[in-house]
Amino acid sequence: MLSVVYPQRMTSQPTAGAVLPDAAAAPDRTSPIDRAARSIAMSAGLTAITLRRMAATSGLPPATVASHEPSMGALAGRTFSDLAHEEIDDMAARLVGAASPLDALKTLVESLLGPAHDLSKTIWADAWSTGRHNDFVATAAREAMLAWQSLLVEILVAGAEAGQFSVNRPDLAAQQFFALIDSTTAYALVGYLDSDARSLLVTRSLEVALGLPEGTF
């Protein structure tokens, strides 16, 4: 069984001197404001989290929203962080019961390439783009990616120790895997390659990186 450890969310400071809200002082994630931010992020994207839209979606007066969330940029960053880490938490819980590192890896790969993950991948693509102009989102994306990579590295190390994988640099293999996940997500958004071709690009590259036979995934 795997003992999953990964970085805490939203711990480092964003670039350009912006300051993230204190996580301990963050509002209740079930509040109307947070529910509205999540709804907007998943339906229209992180850049759509504006004061006007937040007020319309939450049903609260703009002044009330602004008093609780003076920075829409910070709210967008926290919203993405929460959504991303919830998915990581869910995956980590699923992997704890895996019979072997290879089984855990198959579960992770199948989940990330499956249709149920499409919305999450779209939000990730949105975060990478939005993060160019929003330091809070950039910080959240970096930290969530480190968490995903840490989760995969643990699987790869355990698999190498068990003789299931042949990999000298688990960290590099994990970075390569998620780079392919992100790039094929971008391909999907513009209709480049079909779904099977995009999945094969990811799975065959991972098989080669780990010394696994073709068709393992």
From TrEMBL:
This is TetR family transcriptional regulator.
